[in-house]
């Protein structure tokens, strides 16, 4: 057996998320079907983590064990062209059998796109969230650094999550304005993120930018460990898993 | 009756083009259905010209006569929100009854996006053409100015077109390289374009950039008035009607 690591991108619009499940089209299932055909033997893949229905990936990382070695570009091209068009295989490399796409994650980067203004672009209706209300960018910029550092992010985790340890470290929390497409593009980089955490952070930041919450309220919300104090969960179509880093 | 001019955008992916036809979903039909409901009376629209199946618009122009005057933002908002999500209504203005969206066109601008490199992005599979072969941009840049000016473009018109006068004037023919998305973005501006003309021009330019046709061959192809001498027709998903200008 040879272990391969692959960097993949996918348009999440027509997937019920990354993780395999009964009676629903998922990214994991499509890639496993293709690899199983290529190897003539059941192959399972492991991703760096799940993504929800409608969430996209520019640089999701997976690993899998293949029964025999194959030239890397042949493996990449075979996987890329035999999976459906909404999955792209960007890079394949051979890794040590100790490598694990989920357990060894060091850092993840997500982006979140929000289109402002009217009308909603027909070209980004599946690729950016939409917020047609007043936004004061300076307020969002004032609030963003309060997410940095190591905190218990219980207030920014969807209720129902079974994960016990809700302490995460955020290294980057920033926003840029793209005039051409009238979009806010948020970037969040950290050692890991809780269930729906980025979508709740963005929902809260939009509430702040829209004057419905004070721009200094993030530290108190974090301290309270109460999901009810944070803002709403932003829609999945704006979210992109951009990069996963390992040691 | 009050005449309105509207600027609209649409994602052409799920339309069989702009123009109304039997048993196929078209942009014209969707907008007419909405206007007819708004006016409780059959309303017809006129576009600046057709676009083919899969072709997009950032700034298509239409006009229509409405039985009574309505505040412009109300009209825009009503049309925008009551048409399906793949149509956006950007602007509505009241115009003189002499205005006609097709007959009075002075200038049209089209863009054409081509993604180069591997793999094909899952996010642009409906929004850019794909050319994964070698391209020498300098050759395309050398050939582009040969389209400028007034010429009989018979060689760049799909056979079967019923239009007799194939003389058109091109004011701008340019290309830029977008590093971030690995895309060539062509811009063509002229007093009008023949059936599939831009897609044939792009197909020919890609053949030149790929070393399969000399970069000085455009003038001879134009002079020959023979469609067989030009390159193939590029795919519709890369084409955008960007702007229509009137006197």
Automatic annotation (TrEMBL), chains A, B:
| Name listed for the protein in its UniProt record | tRNA pseudouridine synthase A
Q: How does it assemble?
A: Homodimer.
Q: Which HAMAP family match?
A: TruA
Q: Which family does it belong to?
A: Belongs to the tRNA pseudouridine synthase TruA family.
Q: What does this protein do?
A: Formation of pseudouridine at positions 38, 39 and 40 in the anticodon stem and loop of transfer RNAs.
Q: Which reaction does it catalyse?
A: uridine(38/39/40) in tRNA = pseudouridine(38/39/40) in tRNA
Q: What is its EC number?
A: 5.4.99.12
